[in-house]
Amino acid sequence: MTRRLLRAAIPLAVAVTAAGLLAGCSSGNTGNANAPASFAATAAINPHPISDLRQGGNMNFPLSQIPQNFNYYQIDGTQVDTARFYLALMPRSFTAAADASLSVDTDYFSSITESTVNGKQTITYDINPKATWSTGRPIDYTDLVATWTADNGKDTSYQASSTAGYDRVESVVRGSSDKQAILTFAAGKNFGDWRSLFNPLLPREAMNSPEAFNTGSVNTFPATAGPFRIRSIAPGKQRFVAERNPNWWGANKAVLDTITFIPLDSTASVGALQSGEIDYYELGSSADAFKTARGIPDIDLRQSLGFQYRHFDFNGANGRITSDRAVRLALMKAINRTLIAQSQLGQITSKPTILDNHLYVNGQKGYQANNGDITFNPDQAKKELDAAGWVMDGQFRKKNGKQLDLRDVIPADTPNATQEAQIMQQNLKDVGVNLVIDAVPSDDFFSKYILRGDFDVTHFTWEGTPFTSSSDGIYRLTPGITLQNYGQIGSPEINALADQALAETDDAKRIVLYNQLDAKIWQEGHSLTLFQRPSTYAVKKNLANFGAPAFGDTDFSKIGFLK
What we know:
Blueprint: E1 4-6, E2 14-16, E3 53-54, E4 58-63, H1 80-89, E5 94-96, E6 102-104, E7 109-117, E8 120-127, H2 141-151, E9 169-174, E10 180-185, H3 210-215, E11 228-233, E12 240-244, E13 258-263, H4 266-275, E14 280-282, H5 287-294, E15 299-304, E16 308-314, H6 325-334, H7 337-345, H8 378-387, E17 391-393, E18 396-399, E19 402-403, E20 405-411, H9 415-429, E21 434-440, H10 445-450, E22 457-463, H11 472-475, H12 492-503, H13 507-524, E23 527-532, E24 535-540, E25 543-544, E26 560-562
Parallel strand pairs: 1-22, 4-13, 20-21, 20-22
Antiparallel strand pairs: 1-2, 2-22, 3-26, 5-6, 7-8, 8-10, 9-10, 11-12, 12-13, 14-24, 15-24, 16-22, 16-23, 17-18, 18-19, 25-26
Helix pairs in contact: 6-8, 7-9, 12-13
C-alpha cells in the first residue's frame, strides 16, 4: 500500500500514496451490519504502564514501500512510512494527543513560546540542553536555521515538498546561546499554524545544501536523535534496523531492543502477519484483509478515526482534457462516491460515508460539508459535458474529432485501487466518457508518473496531520513548482484565501477561512474526495502501547511486549 503524506511546514498531509490492500468486497455492499457504525477519535493501542512490559525484544514493522529518500522534507521522502519511523528516530517541536491537541515535546525543547516583538510574530525555541544528534553533536539553533533555509522556497534548487509557513519567516537566528533559536515572521506575514514548524527537525548536515537535501539521504539515513538510532541499512534498503539509543536523554528509555523496518508488498502483508513475520499490519479499507486478520489467532483489531482519506486527482496541465474546469466538474458529478465508499468500507463499518471536505476529516474540529452541488448526478454531468462541447458520437463523446478518453494511472497489485477505477470506469461510460485504466509498477507510481504529471486522473490516499496548513502545497498553484499539487490545478483566489488562512492566528477564525478555501477548491474542480478511512490495525495481542493512534502520535519509547 503506497501512501503520500500531506505535508506543509510540518509532516503534514503526508501524502499517503496508499492505494489499497487486498481484494475488496462486492461493490453492492452497503455495510456490514455486525461492524461498528462509527469510530471514535480515541486511540486504540492496548495501553499499559512500562512496568507491565518485558524489556527488550524486536518488533517487525512493515513499510508500504522502499523509502525513496530518508529526508522527509524532500519531495520523494514525504511519505506516511517516513513520518511514522521518524517518530522513533527524529526530533520534533510538538507532539499530538489522540484528539489532535498539541503540546511541546519536552524531550527536545524545554519550552517554545510565542510573542510579538516590534510588531512581528516571534517564536522562541529553547532546546533541551541534553538533546544530541547520534553523531554526538548537540542539537542547536543551526539545525533550525538549516531546516528553514531549505524549506522556505527562496532557493528552488531545494526540492521541498512544501514551503508552507517557512516561506513567511523573515529570520531564524541564535538567541542567548547555541541552545536557543529565535524565529521571526516577516511584517504582515503571521502564521497561525506556527506549531507545525520543525515537525520534524533534521540535522543541518542533511539540509545545508541542495545536494545534501535532495540526494544526500537517498541511501543513508541522516543523523538521528530519538529513543532509537539506526543500526544498519540492508543493500537496496530492503530493510533497516533501528536499535535502542544508549545515549537517549528522554523521559523514557526505549522498551524494545530493536525495530526492524521491512518494505513489504501489500499482497504479501496479511500472509506475513499470519506467519508471524510482522507484528502488525494496517488494514486500510481492504475487506479481504479485514476478514482474514479477524480470523488470525492472537491478533487484535484496533480501530479509531484517523487522518487518512481517499481521493481522485485530476491533471490540469495544458493540453489535457481535464485542463477544462467545466469538464472536471462534470466528471465529479458523474462519479458515484457513495458506491465507492460502500465497496471499500462495507466490511469495516455498517454505515460507509463519503467525505465532503479537503482540509478537515470527520471527528476533527472544523469539519463540514463544502461540496455544494457536486453530488452524484449523471444527468447533470451529461448536460455539462454537452455544454463544454463534448457531444455523444456513438458510445463515447467527441469534440473536434477527438474522443473523450481519460487515462487513469494506478499502482499495480493494489486491488482496491483497481476496484475504485472499475467503478469509476462504469460511471463515466454511462455519461459517454472512456476511462482507460493504466496499472503501473507500484514502486514507480509516484516517482515516474504522478510527480511528473503523467496522468489524466489518479487516486491514492492522503494522510494529514493536526496542522491544516500542511495541505497548503496540495492546493496552492505556483508556476514552475509542483510541491504536492500534482495536477497543477488552482487559482489566484485559492492562493489568496490560503494566504489569509495561513496568517490568521485566531483558531476559530482560521477554521472559517479554511472552510471558505475548501469551498473554492470544490468550485475549481481541483480533486474529488471520496471517503475517510478508519485506522484499522491488526496487532499481536501481546504488543502494548501500539495500534490505531486516532489523531495523535505514537510514543515509540513505550512500545513493548507484555510480560
